[in-house]
Amino acid sequence: MIRRATLAFIHRWLGLALAAFLLPACLTGSVLAWKVELDHWLNPQLFLARSAGLAMSRWDGGRGDLDQSAGGGSAARRCKR
Q: Cβ(61)–Cβ(75) under 8 Å?
């Protein structure tokens, strides 16, 4: 029969070997899970939008200056069916 000290020795070294495998797997998995947040934290200059043009109005529905380019009519009225 295997003695208790031998089983403890085997258990200790198997646990350390598995920890050596699992620790890098957990750390790289965490980096992948938090990729966007880490990227924003490490490179904030990449998330700043700089524009040379005029700012859009908050209430134009995302159309920008589309209405002014065609004589002031709305985009729905300018469409021909």
A: no
Radius of gyration over every alpha carbon of the chain, rounded to an integer in angstroms: 31
Environment class of 46 (CB within 10 Å of its CB; exposed 0-12, middle 13-18, buried 19+) = exposed
Name the token pair of 44: 């904030």
Which residue in 26, 23, 45, 46 sits closest to 34, CA to CA?
26
- Burial class from Cβ neighbours inside 10 Å (0-12, 13-18, 19+) for residue 64 reads middle
Verdict on whether the full-model pTM lies above 0.70: no
Query: pLDDT digits over 48-64, tens only?
Result: 877 777 766 666 555 55
For 3, counting Cβ atoms within 10 Å of its Cβ (0-12 exposed, 13-18 middle, 19+ buried), the class is: exposed
